[in-house]
Amino acid sequence: MQYGHIDHVSKPVSHIVFGTATPKMFAAFRSVYGESPDFPQRLDAAFQLLDDMYAEGVNCFDSSDHYGEEPLGEWLEARGLHDRVVIFTKGAHHNRWRKRVTDFDILHDVHNSLAKLKTNHLDIYMLHRDDPEVPVGPIVDVLNRCYDEGKIGAFGGSNWTVERIEQANEYAAKHGLQPFTVSSPNFGLADQVEDPWGGGCITISGPANRAARQWYAENHIPVFAYSTMARGFFSGLVKSDDPEGAKRIMDEPGLKGYAYPENFERLRRCERLAKEKGMTVPQIAMAWIFNQRQLDVYALTAPVEREMMRVNVEASEMPLSDAECRWLDLETDAL
Questions:
Q1: Residues 6+ apart with CB under 8 A from 137
Q2: What are phi and psi of 207, to 5 degrees?
Q3: Which regions of the chain does DSSP assign to beta strands (E)?
Q4: Fewer CB under 10 Å: which end of the chain, C or N?
Q5: pLDDT in tens, 248-284
Q6: List of residues 6+ apart from 153 with CB closer than 8 A
Q7: How do residues 3-35 score in pLDDT, each as one tens digit?
Q8: 332: alpha, beta or left, given left = phi > 0 and alpha = psi -120 to 50?
C-alpha cells in the first residue's frame, strides 16, 4: 500500500480508501441500535469487512452523515483505532425538501458525525454537495470555525466545481482563513457522460474536463476520486461486445452515468491490454488512475471481500506507460 501526506492531517493516508457504502455496512446501520433481530450477526459482518480492509493496509475510511458512520464508529471504538485510522466523512447533503449547504446544516452534520463516529476530531471533512446559489463566504467561515475548534482537519468539497473551489479559496485568502485543501469529484477511466443521481454530481473525467484536471495538478489539491470503477462498468462482468448485457449487471445510476459507446470502447481496450499483460480489467482500470502522475489521487473503492481489496492495492502499484494511458483514454488510435 502506498501512503500520502495531506496538509492538516497528522497521519499518513492510504492511497486506496475504503468506501463504507456497501451492503454489509448498510445492513449494519440499524443493527447498531439493536433495531434488528439479527443485530449481532449484522454488526459482526460489518466488523469483519472493516478488519479485512485494515489488514490490507487501508487506513482511510470514507463515510457520510447518511451512510457508514454508525458501524464505522462502533468498530473504531471496539478496536481502539481512532489514533491510527484517517476518518473521511461528509455532510451538508441535500434532502428531499431542500438544499442544505448552510452554516446551520454544516454545524449540525459535523456534530452528528463526531457523535456517531465516537470521536472529537474528523481528519478529513467534505461538503457532500454544493449549492451555487449560496455565497461561499458563510460556508468558508463555518468550516474555519470547526477547524479552529479542532473538530475537523483538512476540509473541502465533494462535487464542487473548480470555479466554486476557487471562489472559496479566494475568500479564504482575502480574510486570512484556511482554504479548501481537498476535493472529491468523480474520476476514473470511464467518462461520466450523464449525472448518475439526477443533479449535483461533478466529474473531472473525460476529454471535456482536461482543464479541471490541469487545475488540480497546478494547485496541488489531492483528489479523493469516487466511482473509480464506474459503478461496476470495469468489474470484468460487463463485456465490451455485449452492451445489452450491462443492463443485467449494473444498477440504474451506473447505466445512466457510464453505459455509452465511448466507454465501451475504453472497456474493449482494457480487455485487450489485460489479456496482453496477464491482468484483469479492474486492475487495468485501477492502474490507469494511479498512472495519472500529475494528480495526487486517493481512490475510493467499495470491495465486498478482502481479496478484492488486495487486487486493488496490487493494481495501484502497477506501472503503465504514458502511451498506454493515452490509448486507454481514447486520446490515440494506435498503441
A1: 171
A2: -65, -30
A3: 3-4, 13-14, 16-19, 60-62, 86-91, 122-127, 152-158, 182-184, 223-225, 297-301
A4: C
A5: 999 999 999 999 999 999 999 999 999 999 999 999 9
A6: 8, 9, 10, 121, 122, 123, 124, 125, 147
A7: 999 999 999 999 999 999 887 776 766 555 555
A8: beta
Q: Please give the Cα distance from 281 to 328 (Å, whole number).
A: 12
Give the whole-angstrom CA distance, residue 243 versus residue 248: 10
Domains along the sequence of the chain with CATH: 3-328 (3.20.20.100)
Contact between 306 and 53 under an 8 Å Cβ cutoff? The reply is yes
Look at residue 227 and give its three-state secondary structure.
Answer: coil
Give the separation between CA 130 and CA 136, rounded to whole angstroms.
10
Q: Which three cell numbers stand for residue 66?
A: 447518511
Handedness of CA 12, 15, 21, 24 (dihedral sign): negative
Give the number of other Cβ atoms within 10 Å of residue 304's Cβ.
12
Residue 332, SS3 per DSSP: coil
Using CB atoms within 10 Å of the CB of residue 318, give its burial: 0 to 12 exposed, 13 to 18 middle, 19+ buried: middle
Three-state DSSP class for residue 153: strand
Confidence tier at 40 by pLDDT (50, 70, 90): low
Note the pLDDT tens digit of each residue in 83-104: 999 999 999 988 889 989 999 9
Burial of 63 (0-12, 13-18, 19+ CB in 10 A): buried
User: Can you tell me the distance from the alpha carbon of 39 to that of 45, in angstroms, rounded to the nearest whole number?
Assistant: 10
pTM to 2 decimals? Answer: 0.94
Cβ atoms of 59 and 88 within 8 Å: the answer is no
Cα dihedral sign, 169-223-227-335: positive
The per-residue pLDDT for 274 is 97
Strand partners, 183: 157, 223
Other Cβ atoms within 10 Å of 172 Cβ, number: 20
Mean pLDDT on 203-208: 95
d(CA 133, CA 151): 27
